[in-house]
């Protein structure tokens, strides 16, 4: 059997590319696990895809993520322009740092930009949250997932379904069912929200006495008429509604007068713990977010998804999530009548995903930078 060692003080250099809220949540447990392995030289590049304090810096502070070594400050832009700018910013960093592995997370534009840049420079790529499929190519996230998976060397899947999706596409090499990083951080922080009872009081709401609404997908926000109708349908339920408003959504509803409705409260984007707290205490959750669908499932909060499809089919199979798309009748019916009561299954691992990932990268990284005796 071959024995591999590292020459001198050589380390396995890993660059992690992040740029949006879902990335920040995923990198938190990953960065915590990797810092315990002294064999790694770990560098974080923040692309600045989410650029305001509430959607970026606050998460780093709250989740104790190391300060990024580089920040590209790309900001908002149309998809192609944003992806191109991120690649232009990443290339000189990758050339300078010469990483052994580039790690990308999820399905945002920073994910694809990081993977493409690494591929062009013949750097090994690790895609965390690989194998997810909604099978809707109209979604920018679906394009980012599929293309990133095609060029990745290490594909870390959150569920068995994701592994099977890759297998159907002929991708079997370098595929690992590691579990879900978001479940790691969820289990780590769920007890902390019990120490925040004052949050609901400050907002003038009680547990299980409100609907929690989030909307940010371009399929819902790019059409102002559609977005207006979605919000008005939900308002007409006469339920109390708490609406943490994503910057993209906020810009789209600036001309929508919601002040005449006293049952909806629009608030700024929240930190991780505050958002989990609202999800846990919500009567129901209405969303188009993939991450929120999972968190709702773990919290046993009925989830009404404003999409025609989802990459998290496990939540549908266990009947804690329902797809309503842009169907007014379905939305109205779900608000009043969707009351799941089944059990949750362990689809997403057992909370040790980050440790598994780091161990795999340790073994694989040794071979990338090996010096054979």
Describe this structure in words.
- This protein is α/β, with parallel strands linked by helices and 373 residues long.
- The protein is 43% helix and 16% strand.
- Helix 1 (21-34) crosses helix 7, helix 1 crosses helix 16 and helix 3 (79-97) packs across helix 4.
- It is globular.
- Radius of gyration equals 21 Å
CATH-derived topology of the largest domain: Rossmann fold
Q: In CATH, what is the homologous superfamily of the largest domain? A: Glycogen Phosphorylase B
Judging from the principal axes of the Cα atoms, what is the shape?
A: globular
What's the number of extended β-strand segments?
A: 15
> Could you say how many structural domains there are in total?
2
Question: Runs with pLDDT <50, length 5+?
Answer: 1-5
- By helix and strand content, what is the structural category? alpha/beta
Tally of individual helices? 16
The level of helicity is: 40-55%
What is the end-to-end distance?
Answer: 11 Å
Major sheet: 7 strands, parallel
How do the strands of the widest beta sheet line up side by side? 4-3-2-5-6-7-8
Topology:
Elements (H helix, E strand, L loop, with lengths): L3 E2 L6 E7 L2 H14 L5 E7 L10 H6 L7 E2 L7 H19 L3 E5 L3 H12 L3 E5 L11 H12 L2 E4 L2 H9 L6 E3 L3 H9 L8 H5 L8 E4 L3 H4 L2 H12 L5 E4 L2 H6 L11 E4 L4 H10 L2 E4 L2 H10 L3 E3 L7 H5 L3 E3 L4 H10 L15 H16 L2 E2 L1
Parallel strand pairs: 2-3, 2-5, 3-4, 5-6, 6-7, 7-8, 9-10, 9-12, 10-11, 12-13, 13-14
Antiparallel strand pairs: 1-15
Helix pairs in contact: 1-7, 1-16, 3-4, 4-5
